[in-house]
Amino acid sequence: MIKKIIISSVAFFVMSLVALYHAHNVETATTEKVLEEITGNNSIVVLELFTSQGCSSCPPADRLLQQVKQEYPENVFALSYHVDYWNYIGWEDPFSNPAYSVKQRNYTRKFNYRSNYTPQIVVNGMEHFVGSNATKMYSKIQDYSAKAQENQVSLDKVSLENDRINFNFNVDGTVEGRQLRAVLVLDERTTEVKRGENRNRTLKNSNIVVAENYINLGANAGIGSVKVPSLVRTSDKMTLMVLIESDNQDITAAAKYRIS
Fold it and tell me: Per its UniProt record, what InterPro entries does this chain match (predicted)?
């Protein structure tokens, strides 16, 4: 009787192992298929964070944006726009620009939202949420990573001459009602904040937008440039990003190029 129980237990254990092995293989195959589909779509996830050094709730969102940029180096495009409406608290954010507050206000109107807020993440120009919400962030990265792009854009002959970055671009797909946004992104900068809500804190900001230029697309290929502002140091690492936008601010393609 005992022998029969032992044999039955061993058989059950072996069958369980086989089932687990099969399940693992199915899960692995499914994961590989999903990754294959995402790669095949050439998907992009453009994350525009509206933030400020004067906002005490912004540092967690700044860190989260840097984290996902490192985890998804290929298809995530991380942009940190520093708005200027927090400057009145007593600390003037050195990266703030009134044009970025206007940009955020245009999104606010598009989304029929009541007002600007920080930290705010806008995904592919299509929806927004609180920028420190990690669960939402990863969920949206997964969602948008599975979507095919309406356009494709590529860069060529990128060069740094004096205070300008020049480039050639080529766009696949329709360019009717589209524009190209060239964005210069500073990799990282550390600031000792003396006043305001983050006073006496040392903040590390990443993916800082320091300049951008819009080009209306009349053809699928062309040349463009963006001016390097004086706040950029020779030791700074920069990335040029180009985004294709529809007339309602949806982002339909993106490409990036590391500036050495």
Answer: DUF1223, Thioredoxin-like_sf
